Amino acid sequence: MSFPKEFFWGGATAANQFEGGWNEDGKGDSVCDHMTGGTVDKHRYFTNEIKSDTHYPSHEAIDFYHRYKEDIALFAEMGFRMFRMSINWTRIFPNGDDEVPNQKGIDFYRSVFEECKKYGIEPLVTISHYELPYNLMKKYDGWLNRKCIDFYIRYCNTLFTEYKDLVKYWLTFNEINCLTMSIGDILSGGFKCEDGPAQVMGLPDTKEQVAKRYQALHHQFIASAKAVKLGHEINPEFKIGCMIAGGCIYPYSCNPDDVLLAQKEMRMNYFCGDVQVRGEYPHFTKRMFEDLDISILEEEGDRDILKSGKVDFYSLSYYMSTCSTVDENTLKTSGNVVMGVKNPYLKSSDWGWQIDPKGLRYLLNELYGRYQIPIMVVENGLGAIDKVESDGSIHDSYRIDYLRDHINQMKEAINDGVELVGFTPWGCIDLVSISTGEMKKRYGFIYVDKDNEGKGTLNRLRKDSFYWYKKVISSNGEELD
Ligand code: BG6
């Protein structure tokens, strides 16, 4: 057995990291537009006022806004069958609470989807990928305010109605589980904050802050369930999925305390999926909230809403695994959203993310066993520094190795019986790193000439991995060398 014939090979992006055109054609500013580039210590900064002398990477990003035809043609040349992108909420509703959508924003995405259609590429659209309107942060404290549900549903209603014949696959929130961690305070929660280090730091883990996170998350669960229900009413053919930052956590040893700790941490990986797939909070929630000493406010009818909006498929990002132990004298390692204990059996990327293809097979089996609905891996890849040779070639064999190993493990998972239906590796075209704001941390098959300071021609170049992935797709995952 191998990849199913109709397997969705493709690539993934997000508006805030690749679109640019941040204030063009009526677009409002989103929370991400207030985040500066990376600095020496790799932190990005959040500023409430947008300063004219500061570099904000999302403002131009890689200018997909003006180059989408060229970029989609390159994706088509590789043979993409699916293209994951997000819609910038503020291009449709500039302030988030507007009554009427921005026509130019609607037109832009229609052109993008039509361009995909021309090549037979199926769009996979993330409705919210760190692009909350800044106005909702400032005026309402973001997702802490229940009103955000209505604003989000109005936005979804516009998208579903406008694009019902162009888009079939949707994701309600990117990495919704990030909202349980400080890393999600600004980008996912849109909580009001002072100017200061963003992304890596988030806001302090006080009891009040933790309670805010789970309250905001509850609002996102309700919003997601309502969106699923609404989408199915508008077009019963729609397939609407959840998107979870997938981590794999191993016990560091067979000490039962390590095993229990790993189980507890893995539950944080399952928590959001459990709610969105099963339509109810999992059995461990009560104890979890008691241990955290928090409670959340629910309205009458919320439980029914969750039940009425179960997702059609499960999607995840997967970059790395970590270990858990009660032993405090172990080496630590970090990643995009997780901190954990270093695994001596694994190598790491230049940014310290532990590379573990087998962890993906393990996780896919666990998820499928738990939910038994189709799964897509909608992010995976290696952030690395690329060198352009004098003839314009880029020899990124490290990226090919990384992806080959992960594809092989996905194949194993399919043979294990997992219903895996798509793979869209992250940053199929180089884009801005979310955690560091850098350009030099590249994931793409397509190189974009732009540096950390925002300088460059923005020209696109094909890397070695471009030709390799094209072969992978045309052979449906059989030719991996
Ligand atoms: C995921 C996010 O967590 O990781 C993406 O959904 C992000 O937005 C990706 O870009 C890779 O992380 P980074 O920090 O290398 O850009």
UniProtKB/TrEMBL annotation:
Transmembrane segments: none annotated. PROSITE patterns: GLYCOSYL_HYDROL_F1_2 (PS00653). GO terms for molecular function: beta-glucosidase activity. Keywords: Glycosidase, Hydrolase. It holds the Pfam family Glyco_hydro_1. One of its GO terms (cellular component) is cytosol. One of its GO terms (biological process) is carbohydrate catabolic process. NCBIfam families: PRK09589.1, PRK09852.1. Belongs to the glycosyl hydrolase 1 family. This is Beta-glucosidase/6-phospho-beta-glucosidase/beta-galactosidase. It comes from Clostridium intestinale URNW.
